[in-house]
Every structure is written in structure tokens, then in C-alpha cells.
Amino acid sequence: MWWRYLREPISRSRGKHRVVGALIWLIVVFWLVSTRPAYAAALSGPGGNAPSLTISSPNPPQGPEGTRVVLAGAHWTPSASFDFAYSVAGGSCDASETRFDGVTATADNQGQFQVALQWPATPPGTYAICALGVGTPLYGTSAANVFTKLGQGAPSLTVVGAAVVGQPVTINGTNWFTTQVGSANQVEVLSGDPSGNGCTTHQMTLTPAADGTIEGTFTPTATGPLRLTAVNPPGTCGSTTQPSLSTSIVIIVTPTSSGGGTPGAGGSGTPGVNRPTATPCATTNCRPAPASGIPFGPLCLALLVLFALLLLLFLLLIRRRNEEIIVTEEDVTAQIDPASVAPLGAMRFVKTVRVTTQVADRRTGMVRRSRSRDYDEFADTNGVIRRRLRTTTS
């Protein structure tokens, strides 16, 4: 076969083998060298321009986990489809990239496309992004710029303590490494119905610290569930312009306690302090409240039943220790009618025996239980005895 020309060194071939082997090696080398240029030419757009890929948002291209990254492509083959992957910056699209799950794009008639993705959980660092032909090997065109992953997690938002209506509530957050410049480098916090997006009412605008943390306060005006949403940049919550960073939580706003206290014995009450008061009860309704925990009556009943079962088991064990089993056999052939013995194949009837099993008390010898069974015995030509049950008597 043709592959033996590849295994055999060219210098050791003879005649036409040398020529055929050299041609095969040339074809293999030409295929290896031309594969990637042919792939790139197949992806190139109208006019023969090389395909391009750019991170258009955020600007600069950096942020934490969950950052919305927008990719823009140009000069691609119209109607061509693509997957996208990332790898450590410095590596090429020929290396072992990791694909973004569910992120695909299709070029329009001008060979252009735009696609958005959320940056996954990766270690901090700089990453290259590649566009790959769907179903092709993992190589393609890398973006002109790289994405820098900041921080160790996604942006978060938490409430410190309880949320009480009419009182200041403190919120804080982490991993808000914003990627914008100027006023867009802030985080807007809004609130709204818990079943919606929480973008109804503006609450505050915060500037993240260098470590990505935020902190601020707001005063809720109503009780019940409340959704808090934080976005970057400001003004993108619920708008057609998608935020680069966002997160949302639902809190429960509780009502405040009653105001002025109850006057104490001998003076006026302290405002804001509620003192307990004694309430007289009717003479027929002064029963003490039942004790909490497991009811005493049912617990005692359960323990008594368990004790009775254990006692019964103990007595049965003692009784069995005082019992012995006695087994006796006797020939009762004379007590039966030989004509009543049914034949057993070619075997010969020998006799009828009665096996009696008795359970007796070891101390008194009294028989407590007794059972008798009659067996017909048959013998074959070799003298082997076989028994067949005849009757049972208890």
C-alpha cells in the first residue's frame, strides 16, 4: 500500500519506489503548509481584505467576571458563521483556546457582524479573543486588542443589617472594577418592583474605590419586597444601551416599631422605649400557657410501650433457653393398610415410620408442643432409601 512509501526512508528506496515516496512526501508537506492560508482565504471578505476582529466595548477593554464584551468583525465572508474563544494573551489562535459557550455570529452581506458576550470566571490576566469558523479546527483570527480580566469574581451588591422603612439602609458591593472614563466610571443604584428589573427609582450614584468596592445609603419609603439593581455606566438600567456591569438583589423592607413608650411607675415614659404592661385576665380564663417543647403525656406513653415490648422480648428469650427439642422415630407399618401405600416409580416399599418432634421444658420435663409426621420409605435396587410424607399430626 501507499503508506509503506512513507515508512521507508527515501534513501533506501529502489527505482520507482524512490520517486513515488518523494512525491508523497512533497504532497504531505504542501498540504501542511497550505492549510492555514487556504482557511484564511476562505474566510476573507469581498475585495480580498483580511478578516478583522475588534473589542469595541468596553473601552478600555477590561473588567471583572460578568463584564459585557462587544466584538465587531469586518471583511468576513458574507453569511459565514463563527464561534468565539479566548486564550492567554501572547498565544495565537492555533493554540488550545477555550470556546465561549453559546456565543455565535453570522456575517451580513457586507461581511460585518457584532456580537456581545459575558466574560466567564477566569483568573485575572490578559486574554486574546479569537473568531473561529463553526465546526472548524480551533484556529482563526484573533482580535486586534486584548481583554484584561480584573478581580477574582463578579460584581456583587449586599445590604448591611435590616432594612426598615423610613430609616437609612447601608449597601456595599465588591468587584466593581469599572472600565469607563469620566462620569461613566460610576455605579448607579436603582430600585423597583421585585418582579421587574429594578430600574424604576434612582437611589444613588457611587464611585468605586481602587479595590472595586462601593458603599452608600438610601431610605426606603414602603414596606415589602424591593429589588435593588446596580449598573455601570449610569443611565443604562432598562435602556436600549446595555450596561457593561450589572447585578440585582431583592430585599425585604420591614415596618418600624411604635413610637412613644408606656409611662413607668412614678413618671413619664421614655420616648421610643416600649415597656411591658400587665394585663388583667378574666377569672375563668387565667390558665397558664402550655409549655413549649415535646408534650409530656405522649412521650411517657411511647416510653411505656417501648418498655413493654422489650420486656416481652426478654421473656421469650428466657423461655427458649429453658426448652429442649426431642425427636423420636417408630415403625408404624403394622398400623396402616399396605394397600393405601401409593407406589413410587420402580422403587420398593419398605416401611412406614412416624417422626415425632417435641418441645419440652428442661426443668419439669413437661411437653409444651408436639408434632408427628408419617413417612413412607422406599428403596431402589441399590438400597438407597427415599422418604415420602404421608400425614402430619400436631
Report on this structure.
The strands form five sheets. Strands 2, 4, 5, 7, 8 and 9 form a six-stranded mixed beta sheet that branches. The chain has a five-stranded mixed beta sheet with strand order 11-17-16-13-14, with no helix packed on it. The chain has helices at 4-7, 16-43, 296-321; strands spanning 52-57, 62-63, 68-74, 81-88, 98-106, 113-118, 125-133, 141-142, 147-149, 158-160, 163-164, 169-173, 187-192, 201-206, 214-218, 224-232, 245-254, 323-331, 348-361, 367-379, 385-393. The protein contains three helices and 21 strands. With 394 residues, it is of the alpha+beta class. Strand 20 and strand 21 (385-393) form a beta hairpin. Helices cover 15% and strands 36% of the residues.
Salient structural properties:
21 strands, Immunoglobulin-like, five-stranded mixed β-sheet, 4 domains, 394 residues, alpha+beta, elongated
Describe the secondary-structure layout:
Blueprint: H1 4-7, H2 16-43, E1 52-57, E2 62-63, E3 68-74, E4 81-88, E5 98-106, E6 113-118, E7 125-133, E8 141-142, E9 147-149, E10 158-160, E11 163-164, E12 169-173, E13 187-192, E14 201-206, E15 214-218, E16 224-232, E17 245-254, H3 296-321, E18 323-331, E19 348-361, E20 367-379, E21 385-393
Parallel strand pairs: 2-9, 11-17
Antiparallel strand pairs: 1-3, 3-6, 4-5, 4-7, 7-8, 7-9, 10-12, 12-15, 13-14, 13-16, 16-17, 18-19, 19-20, 20-21
**Overall mean pLDDT:** 78
Helix content: 10-25%
| The CATH H-level homologous superfamily of the largest domain | Immunoglobulins
Strand element count: 21
Structural class: alpha+beta
Number of domain units: 4
Mind summarizing the main beta sheet? Answer: 6 strands, mixed
